[in-house]
């Protein structure tokens, strides 16, 4: 419920702090006193669009703070998971506005988006006014209200999940069909490219290896000449190997006389002989390779240039050719195996659609049952509200498949007929202002037990009615307030007398400024206010007696 409302610098209100109570809370006052300012201020705290005209003249900033006491299991906490607010905490919704049109929204002093504030606000308060564009007047909400009444939220959630699965399967099928159709157009080209690249058989890292090999082959003549010179240097004039052997024999002749001092010399000469032999072997091997493959440069260049030509043709790097071949092979295989894949996707899409339709049909049947029950319940409320001749009808029709959605296959609309024999039509087109308010009230009484917002606000729900009808409106509001907190702005003394708490809104003019004040009335003040509503500015004893009679019921 709404526990308190604090307003700073909004229109005619400079500073106002109100505490509210459970049950039926009545707000009265003369026309122009500022009742609409209270509702506009509360709407601001609930996430309504900022209007800089709401800011008090001469002020740079204004704010509205609304505090709510909400049960721990209320679904509003689902919206608050993103700011990690603990269930059961009081909710303090605050909206600050500035003269430049900017605003700041917060919940329990944590900054939030206006969208989140609005979602939370809609879950906490429903405001119904003469020109409301929501609730009963918005046919888009009728399906939600019916599901709420029939306690079908879980059923709707299941249908929503199945709808998502159906759409996903249809999108996968459509994408596969599109891809295969495109591939079929290019099938001949794909076949040619795959054959060409398979014949080329590019390998990862091949370009770098060929480039290195080509560089070596291009310098083969110089390499061969250098190797030849190296070989001659090692073998001419008896060769280095012979000199090492000669030195080794010389050292060996005196080895036993050197007391081990020549051992390192002998070891070094042996190592030199081994290294020399390995160097000669390598020179011979490389020289033989150069001699065995005189046309190697031509073959390497031919291969390298073929790879680079293919890369230019396909506008990629040589290194990407193996991956490109795999990509074209996959596309070609998709064409060849496409029908098998499409068959599986078609089956999945068909099964998803049938499951959705089946579950949506069950939901539709439940809606038909809930609609019939709602019609009866609303009709029971219309008689006491002096609408006994009216008819209320929940019209449920099947949508064409393109209009199916997460909520199912039904279109739900509340229709009314206010006169016997007349055709039922949309609420907004058929009902007058006073009738619409009473239809709205009747429906809210019916929905009260089905999870409505914990606070309902009616702005002049009694407009256009009086006498016994106004009594009935007050009685129905009081009944509604047994389960919910109801705030009603009223000009009707009968409705005001039904209230369990009463506030009076007045405009005060100090000569220099005009402000709006709101006062909680005690029993005596309440009688006086209702007497004023009965008789006008000149309150008579008869009016006071009548007011007391209304209050006492």
How would you describe the overall organization of this protein?
By secondary structure, the protein is α/β, with parallel strands linked by helices. It has a domain at 185-336. 53% of the residues lie in helices and 17% in strands. It is built from 18 helices and 15 strands. A six-stranded antiparallel sheet has the order 2-1-4-5-6-7, covered by helices on one side. The longest helix is centred in the middle third of the chain and has 45 residues, at 338-382. The model has no long low-confidence stretch (mean pLDDT 85).
Describe the structure concisely for a colleague.
It is built from 18 helices and 15 strands. With 553 residues, it is of the alpha/beta class.
For the largest sheet, list the strands in their spatial order: 2-1-4-5-6-7
β content, as a range?
A: 15-25%
Oligomeric organization of the protein chains: single chain
The largest sheet, given as strand count, sense and whether it forms a barrel, is: 6 strands, antiparallel
- The tally of beta strands, per DSSP, is 15
How helical, in percent, are the residues? 40-55%
Residue-averaged pLDDT, rounded? 85
The SS-based structural class is alpha/beta
Treating each run of at least 4 consecutive H or I residues as one helix, how many helices?
A: 18
Gross morphology is: elongated
Radius of gyration: 46 Å
pLDDT < 50 runs, ≥5 residues:
none
Termini, distance in Å? 26 Å
